[in-house]
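Hi P.,

Sorry for the delay on this. The queue was packed all week, but I finally got your sequence through. Input first:
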Amino acid sequence: IYVQLPDEYNSDVKYPVAYILDGEMFLPTVHNFQGYYGSGFTPPMILVGISNDNNRMRDLTTSKITEMNGMPFENENGEAANFSTFIETELIPYIEKNYPVTNFRTLIGHSYGGLFTLYSIVHHPQLYSNYVAIDPSMDWDNQRLIEEAKGIVSTTNYKGKSLFMSLGGTIHMQKPEMTLDEMKEDTTDFTIFGRSNIAFSEVLNQ
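Then the structure:
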């Protein structure tokens, strides 16, 4: 892990915590963001970057698959539940023991990290107050997490929780001029990534 203290750090003050997946890459980005927007827009926070460099697919994907695109798939995957247990039972207690923090936590993830972030709000909403999912890979395992969410979110109390999802870049891999409405009507694999994100947001809106 990588820990970045606020520029105005005071050990007598308790701070919110942002847990940042792929921390070896994205903790500096969040720290730079804090430098621009930390005065009034976001509170001073302790930033905890979690390295996913070695076992990224294993730890961040939310269900096991054995084939992809019709081909056998042998990479380790589908251990998000174990990784979440590590964060809840080892990492968060470690941070709370060694740093002056509150229980106001934010989880930030991109791509597979975004998938893990949305897995967390579906299956572990008590762990964080805020969830930031950037380009989440909701097409994983034939959109299985979306199907799981349909049976869970309607009966879950999300009072006091915040979710931000973003879908950036091209929504069709070969037709950059395609609109969102056109993407929703498309049925090809070229738009499955974007359509999966829209489908998940519609489940939450309902």
